[in-house]
């Protein structure tokens, strides 16, 4: 395994067409379907980065900020923005596209933690994050800041008390 990998090495984009089987009675995407696609996209990004099998350890808060209508194209994008010893922090964005109007809008974003596994199924070290370009460093910084902002919003919205160390 190489000692470092780049954010670009992990970048993954998937597209899906929203069909009736994946919608609720209003003709909009089922939340579980969107979460499923996000998990798959995050896993692919993690595998591309680490060259290992990965498993989902956690998923941060998710707000569905806009609907995805039946017949729209769903674009799911993910990339690794930080690492631990065996863990990968991955940002996943979801957008809906109306193919008739050439319009794209964001519908949700979440942050996942995946853990890399060796051939025996045990956690194994991952490469260090490298952002050799200004664009990669900007995406990394935006993901770190976005995750912090999202967590702050959740704490404030639900009046969560965070224990002090």
Summed up, what is this model?
The protein is an alpha+beta fold and 165 residues long.
Give a description of the structure.
- The chain contains three helices and seven strands; from the N terminus they run βαβαβββββα.
- It is of the alpha+beta class and 165 residues long.
- It has one domain: Thiol Ester Dehydrase, Chain A.
- The strands form two sheets. It has a five-stranded antiparallel β-sheet with strand order 2-4-5-6-3.
- The protein has helices at 7-10, 31-50, 134-157, and strands at residues 4-6, 12-17, 53-59, 73-83, 87-98, 103-117, 128-130.
* CATH class placement: Alpha Beta
CA radius of gyration: 17 Å
- The proportion of strand residues reads 25-35%
Structural class: alpha+beta
Could you name the ranges where pLDDT drops below 50 across 5 or more consecutive residues?
none
**H/E element order:** EHEHEEEEEH
Strand order of the largest sheet: 2-4-5-6-3
CATH level 4 superfamily: Hotdog Thioesterase
- What is the number of domains? 1
**Helix coverage percent of residues?**
25-40%
**What is the annotated CATH architecture?**
Roll
Number of helices: 3
Mean of all residue-level pLDDT scores: 94
User: How many beta strands in the DSSP annotation?
Assistant: 7
**Principal-axes shape call:** globular
SSE map:
Elements: E1 4-6, H1 7-10, E2 12-17, H2 31-50, E3 53-59, E4 73-83, E5 87-98, E6 103-117, E7 128-130, H3 134-157
Parallel strand pairs: 1-7
Antiparallel strand pairs: 2-4, 3-6, 4-5, 5-6
What are its keywords?
two-stranded parallel sheet; 165 residues; 7 strands; Thiol Ester Dehydrase, Chain A; 35% strand; alpha+beta; 5-stranded antiparallel sheet
């Amino acid at each position: 395994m190489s000692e470092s990998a780049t954010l670009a090495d992990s970048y993954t984009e998937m597209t899906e067409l929203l069909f009736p089987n994946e919608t609720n009675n209003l003709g909009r995407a089922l939340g579980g379907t969107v979460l499923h696609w996000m998990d798959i996209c995050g896993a692919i990004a993690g595998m591309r980065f680490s060259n290992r099998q990965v498993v989902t350890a956690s998923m941060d808060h998710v707000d569905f900020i806009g609907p995805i209508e039946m017949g729209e194209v769903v674009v799911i994008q993910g990339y690794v923005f930080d690492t631990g010893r065996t863990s990968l922090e991955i940002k996943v964005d979801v957008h809906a596209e109306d193919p008739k109007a050439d319009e794209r809008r964001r519908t949700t974003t979440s942050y996942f933690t995946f853990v890399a596994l060796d051939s025996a199924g045990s956690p194994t070290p991952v490469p260090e994050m490298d952002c050799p370009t200004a664009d990669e460093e900007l995406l990394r910084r935006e993901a770190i800041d976005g995750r912090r902002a999202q967590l702050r919003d959740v704490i404030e919205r639900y009046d969560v008390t965070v224990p002090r160390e």
